[in-house]
């Protein structure tokens, strides 16, 4: 018998003994209906956090806010009957039924204490009922795995280990899955009886020609694969999450970040994946997002033996509030739709940029430092906010590290501006057309450089191609070295208006190891190849070698350095810009000098 089951039986026995004692009282002695007085309070001045830790407070809310926590369930958990009935009645709201839109949720344990006949005894009983969650297991543990690294020390290896431990459910929202070990681990989980649901971006195309596709392979393993009518760019999974009761969120494991389930994400690209344990508020927020997308998804229609199902609905008010934790979703930029022909879907809300708006606020509040590591910087609000803070305080430590694909020439930047001006002229006074002009993929790196903001690019080739790219694939923003905003979100309007993304905001007093990890990672990648003199070696090779490498060791280079390197390559090998080199760069990794 588990520790938690023993605790439940002990509570029931105690309650039974108490009842026997009451019934054995002399006839002339009054029966005590409740060990708590009608208006008795457990917390003088409403200071629950002075008596209980955050873990107990959150879990008491999970227990009492669960739609299944009726009076009978609470009594079984050891709460005295008068308090249990009143708590359940309060929760049920005006219609007297739990699990309806009339439910009233508790936002703090102090609110529970205000219920009639809930006092020191009932509050202690609630704490005892959930005590094992705070004494036997982890509480709010999180750490981040950064790539690139060796495969068997990577985020993939950690994820496979978590998948192999799954007991009842796995919910995955993922842009790309190609790693064979991860796929095998998912299949093995299904064979153990674990239910696996997958929101898979590839299925959006695979459903048109399903046979032989990755989506079909996964459905053949017993995974229910579905897709949405937008880009599914999330990269998270919830293992043994809250399927039918809120407290399951405490035992769940969760991971999210920039990395897909691919070999390249493990050993080639700059990525991050953060793993959570004993973190129910985070799990419930992500489960709510998964449920929302799942309920408005479309079936792959391949494995007829798989039946669509939904798990318990999670309302926002069920999630224990944490002022220190923010989780942002671009799904808030969309309204749901339905058509008889296409089924459920999402339609963008004009001008809505929920994530960018919040990131701008964080940037505006920066006092000492702003660091960014990202593949893209194409968000006008975010870019303009960075430039504004620089103009207000040039002493700010602002450093931006981007993938080399964001490097553009001065000529290209001028061309961008010219195209934008022409577009705005054509737009006239139309608000929607103006918005489209300003938010259609403008690359902002040169704008920052032109203002002397320190920008470096991860440079690894003369011309980009996915077959050899060692991409800067991070998507994080660090504010004042104590706050990190990170997730699947690319810094672009496309991420707001066309894709489903997430950003988790970590603060150092809440997740110190996570924040320290990101700060250390940025300091490391900002110096990529510089102390080793990679740039100087490349310049020497270009100037002296007869066969010039066009794919090389990565280095964090300034705009001037990349410009100088590319100019030197073109001077010695004019063919580098010929059509074969431009259209088939994967077949031209070197160039013979003239």
Describe this entry's structure for a reader.
By secondary structure, this protein is an alpha/beta fold. The chain has four domains: 133 residues, no CATH class; 181 residues, Endonuclease, Chain A; 196 residues, Endonuclease Chain A (Endonuclease, Chain A); 33 residues. It has 24 helices and 24 strands. A hairpin with a 3-residue loop joins β11 and β12. The longest helix is centred in the N-terminal third of the chain and has 21 residues. The radius of gyration is 28 Å and the shape is globular. The N and C termini lie far apart (79 Å). The N terminus is likely disordered.
Summarize the entry for a quick read.
40% of the residues lie in helices and 20% in strands.
Name some characteristics of this structure.
594 residues; alpha/beta; Endonuclease, Chain A; eight-stranded mixed sheet; globular
Number of helices: 24
Largest sheet: 8 strands, mixed
CATH superfamily of the largest domain: Endonuclease Chain A
- Strand residue percentage: 15-25%
Total E-strand runs: 24
Structural class: alpha/beta
Low-pLDDT segments? 1-32
CATH structural fold name of the largest domain: Endonuclease, Chain A
Would you state the CATH class of the largest domain? Answer: Alpha Beta
Radius of gyration: 28 Å
- In CATH, the architecture of the largest domain is 2-Layer Sandwich
